[in-house]
Amino acid sequence: MLQAFVNIVKIPDLRKKIFFTLGLIAVYRIGTYIPTPGIDGAKLAQFFANLAQTSGGALFGIMNMFSGGAISRLTIFALGIMPYISSSIIIQLLTAVIPALEKLAKEGEAGHKKIVQYTRYGTIILSVIQSFFIAMWLENPDRFNGLQIVQFPGWSFRILTVITLTSGTAFIMWLGEQIQEYGIGNGMSLIITAGIVSRIPTALYQLWALFSPFAPEKAQLGPFTLILMIVMLVAVVVAVIVVTQGQRKIPVQYAKRVVGRKVYGGQSTFLPLRVNQAGVIPIIFAQSIILFPATIAGFVPHKGFQDFAMALTKGEWLYNSIYALLIMFFAYFYTAITFNPIDISDNMKKYGGFVPGIRPGRQTAEYLDFIMTRITFPGAVFLALIAVFPSIISGWLKIPYLVASFFGGTGLLIIVGVMLDTMKQIESHLLMRHYEGFMKKGKLKARMS
Q1: 3-state secondary structure string, the chain?
Q2: Domain range enclosing 26
Q3: φ/ψ (deg, to 5) at 354
Q4: In the predicted model, is pLDDT for residue 145 greater than 70?
Q5: Could you tell me if residue 10 is inside a domain?
Q6: Together in a domain, 24 and 71
Q7: How far is CA 95 from CA 89, 119, 128, 291, in A?
Q8: How many whole angstroms separate alpha carbon 86 and alpha carbon 88?
Q9: Is 196 domain-assigned?
Q10: How many domains does the chain have?
């Protein structure tokens, strides 16, 4: 593996792509520290510090994670990439229900460019709406326990905030597209990952303070607990990699076709069906819904509703149970949206492909749907377990949730998934230029033989 990293520097094209990607990520991280004009940063930090101690801080915690801490400082990148993610999900869901968009998605590269353009428009619209309501929210001292966050409230501040935050999101979107085109890896995913990884130093500092090796009287974690945490972290990461990479390979045979004097087809291949087809989307959907009552409770002073919102506090058994069920539901829902067995069956039939022992057409579609329904279940259960695991660890070991969040949840799934995808792309560049990849498969096979 170390030799693979050395080989990366030897390939000028790959080296240029990696440095270009790192440079744009550095630009993004700098932008997360440039404040929005007209905001009292000290009072805003005080408010978020107080909010983190309440149930209402959960929603802001998720948004803060995706923005790389920019929302807690309300910088020019405060909205982060979330409007783009929301727009992408909305367009993807609409594609499944609107025939015109579905037809556009099947038109190849031209259709894909159109859908990307619609996603950009949706991102700008969502950014304008969100930034306007953020400006209105910031102007109200009652929401901040009497703190005057905005120095000069009014329409000038609102318009300036909308322009600033929307421009920031548009710039992040542009950075992601530049990384996608000229760099290495998925640009948007790498930007999200950079924001999540930026929290690691804070988490390590909190862990160091809990362990306190130079002040044993202040230590809240013993050596055995620390070793147990390291073992659990390694085990969770390995489990996430296994499930992320896990797939069921359906054998596909292509019939021979004679065109003139040439014979086409006749080869065997396979159709990979992923165990976790939905990725991290079910957790995002479930978090948005389960945190909705806690958010509304801050605006509805009804005692019954307040009690229900308190029962859904992170770490409570009711919260974990409903959260897990929602994740499993959305895993099936999103898989049904993104995986169309009828289209796959029709495409296989068009090119002379068939699953051995299964009649092409409707029976193949039913077979693929049968397989996907069953392999989605372990993937959905794993997503539910990995999502509630940080809450369990936080309550069991009495550690801050920021530290426990790296034992599972959305952040770990995104980091592992993006890193695996980026390493695959780097490895493909190495193998294409006759260098060894990160795993020396050829030598391993030679030794086994």
Answers
A1: CHHHHHHHHHCHHHHHHHHHHHHHHHHHHHHCCCECCCECHHHHHHHHHHHCCCCCHHHHHHHHHHCCCHHHHCECCCCCCHHHHHHHHHHHHHHHHCHHHHHHHCCCHHHHHHHHHHHHHHHHHHHHHHHHHHHHHHCCHHHHCCCCCECCCCHHHHHHHHHHHHHHHHHHHHHHHHHHHHCCCCHHHHHHHHHHHCCHHHHHHHHHHHHCCCCHHHCCCCHHHHHHHHHHHHHHHHHHHHHHHCEEEEEEEECCEEECCEEECCCEEEEEEECCCCCCHHHHHHHHHHCHHHHHHCCCCCHHHHHHHHHCCCCCHHHHHHHHHHHHHHHHHHHHHHCCHHHHHHHHHHCCEECCCCCCCHHHHHHHHHHHHHHHHHHHHHHHHHHHHHHHHHHHHCCCHHHHHHHCHHHHHHHHHHHHHHHHHHHHHHHHCCCCCCCCHHHHHHHHC
A2: 16-191
A3: -155, 155
A4: no
A5: no
A6: yes
A7: 10, 12, 23, 27
A8: 5
A9: no
A10: 2
Tell me which residue of 209, 136, 165, 128 sits closest to 31, measured CA to CA. Answer: 165
151 plus 255 within the same structural domain = no
As beta bridge partners, residue 270 has: 251
pLDDT in tens, 402-435: 777 777 777 888 888 888 888 888 888 777 776 6
Residues 429 and 364 in one domain: yes
CATH of the domain at 78: 1.10.3370.10
Final residue before a domain boundary, out of 191, 206, 241: 191
> How high is the pLDDT of residue 447?
41
Whether residue 56 is found in the same domain as residue 106: yes
Judged by average pLDDT, the poorest of 125-134, 150-159, 255-264 is: 255-264
pLDDT in the model for residue 442 = 46
Q: Is residue 3 part of a domain?
A: no
Domain annotation covers residue 212 = no
> How would you classify the pairing of strands 353-354 and 257-259?
unpaired
Q: Which is nearest to 314 in space by CA: 325, 323, 306?
A: 323
Residue that terminates a domain, selected from 171, 191, 211: 191
Question: Nearest CA to 7 among 443, 447, 440, 436?
Answer: 436
Residue 10 tokens read as: 């030897």
- Shared domain for 350 and 232, answered yes or no, is yes
